[in-house]
Amino acid sequence: MKLFVIAPYLPRTGGASSYLYPLLKHLDDVEIKVYVPSGCADAGSMAPVFNDLPNVEVRTGGDTDMKTWFDSFQPDALLCWEIDPYKSGCGGTRVVSVIHGEGAAHPPSDVIVCDTENLRTELIENYPDEASKAITINGAVELGESDFDLRKYYGIPEKWNVVGFVGRFVPEKNPEALVRASAGQDWTVLMVGIGPQEELLDALSMELGVDTIFTGEMDNVWSAYEAMDLLCIPSLTEEFAQVSMEAALAGVPMVMTPVRSNPEIFGKNVFWTSLQPKEMRKTIAQALEHRHARKVLAGNAKRMIQERCGVQRFVEEWRKVLFGNRGDVKNEHSISQLP
Question: Are the beta carbons of 121 and 285 closer than 8 angstroms?
Fold first, then answer.
């Protein structure tokens, strides 16, 4: 089988551990070409990681280059990752598109994959004629191993509480709220990632006297999770964040805002907080104070993610979507319901 992927970026949350990476990694019997348009942000930045997979080749270029490569490859399926798919001239190739976020564009695809049921419902409300094409496949995550002692590296005392953030430093992820919530508190904020708000967050941390560590991007995010007593996901909008899956699998308790699909997915297995820094500060402080409650919720979230986001289930569902008969996905909202 042959698969052609068009992606505006190569998802890199937690290094190679991401929604796209485990899919390509475990489709190890499929020849895969990945195309990243050269005009896109992050174009090719993770190409070496993906190219290390023996069955994957990554290229970057313009539309003409993409069409030439696609035509010469003659794939069985075209996977469009949060980008308007190349539809004309595809012949009998199955076109599958993936959308992850609120307000995602509606692409001309044979199958539209949403990573939460909430997002699928929203898509159908906006495009009722596409109900038979829209399905839900939750993401997948594999537990990694820490490769160094991050607390020791940064000189964080063993008994000192660490509240972490993992992700892009952008307004929709709302890391500023965590920094403001940490003003005057006796915990360290561990900021893992990069983004346009990094200078703002650094300046704000200094202004408020918040003990903040910026790690930059980490190839092995599991070392960061191991160092955390609590992960805060203060997003203004979120679907099924890869970070939340990773942290749950790593056994890290979470403070989370009840936006979009978060309540649907995690239910009573996290500490819920408002978007207001004052309320966030109170929730974090209470979570850190009640160690037993953190342990119970983290254990429940881990079991839920193990059941819901296993790689074997994930890859089997995707294999049916990409290479099964077209009738396999008609009028079904979840591939896992197929016989």
Answer: no
Q: What is the pLDDT of residues 264-280, one digit of tens each?
A: 889 999 999 999 999 99
Question: 12 falls in which pLDDT band (50, 70, 90)?
Answer: low
- Cα first-last separation, the chain: 22
Per-domain residue ranges of the chain: 2-140+311-334, 150-308
* Distance, CA of 189 to CA of 177 (rounded, Å): 12
Report the chain's mean pLDDT, rounded to a whole number.
86
Domain 2-140+311-334, what fold? Rossmann fold (3.40.50)
Give the number of other CB atoms < 10 A from CB of residue 33: 20
Superfamily of domain 150-308: Glycogen Phosphorylase B; (3.40.50.2000)
